[in-house]
Amino acid sequence: MTDVQHRDGRRTAAVRTYQGHGIHAAPGVHEYAAATVRALLPDGGRVLEVGSGCGALALRLRDAGIDVVPTDLDPPHDWIARLDLDDPEWTDATRGPFDLVVCVETLEHVENPRQVLRSIRALLRPGGRLLVSTPNITHPHSRLLTLLRGAPYIFGPRHYHSPGHITLLPDWMLTEHVKLAGFDRVEVTTAGDTLYTGPMRVAYRVEMALLWLLGIRQRATSGDGVCTFVTATAV
Length: 235
Fold this sequence. Notes:
Elements: E1 3-5, E2 11-13, E3 16-18, E4 21-23, H1 29-40, E5 46-50, H2 56-63, E6 67-72, E7 81-82, E8 98-104, H3 113-122, E9 124-135, H4 140-149, H5 157-160, H6 171-180, E10 183-191, H7 198-213, E11 227-234
Parallel strand pairs: 5-6, 5-8, 6-7, 8-9
Antiparallel strand pairs: 1-2, 3-4, 9-11, 10-11
Helix pairs in contact: 1-2, 3-6
């Protein structure tokens, strides 16, 4: 993996992969998601992934022995099922009920995340589990960027159309959406690291140290906590 130099001088890491499939999430997010799935289903179960992208997380879950059905609105591979929750065409593979639905780094791409969560609830058996994640816009770095430029980390004009980050979900709002969609026993954690490398990484570390001294602190569950994870149980 090599760095990418942008026109504005920023350096970010090149696309990371798992078994040759691009990881479209912050470093550490897929690893944390896989560990969480194993903890939520210690005895195994049937898992649906919504928003699989290139399938890197699904492959990681399968390597961990998880029975997962990957889906995406526009699947790039024939082993990923097409699923549009706004207008679903069910197959034997995608038709529920499931024991757990995983939706990692996807809700920030949709216009109506609460409706997506309702659709996910309908796919779960009673007592089934939910795991969702989205960029943590209350992270100290995002709070500073919002103050300085009006948009959190990986949001704003440069990220609106590509990669399509159109919906900001602070943890309190995501929690309320999850509850109103038919879930309880909601728990919030944070995980993941930034994509910064080289001088940008050094500057980020200095910034975080200064914010810590000012009392603006992030106590992450794993890594730097740049993504918010919510787990919940279907009522």
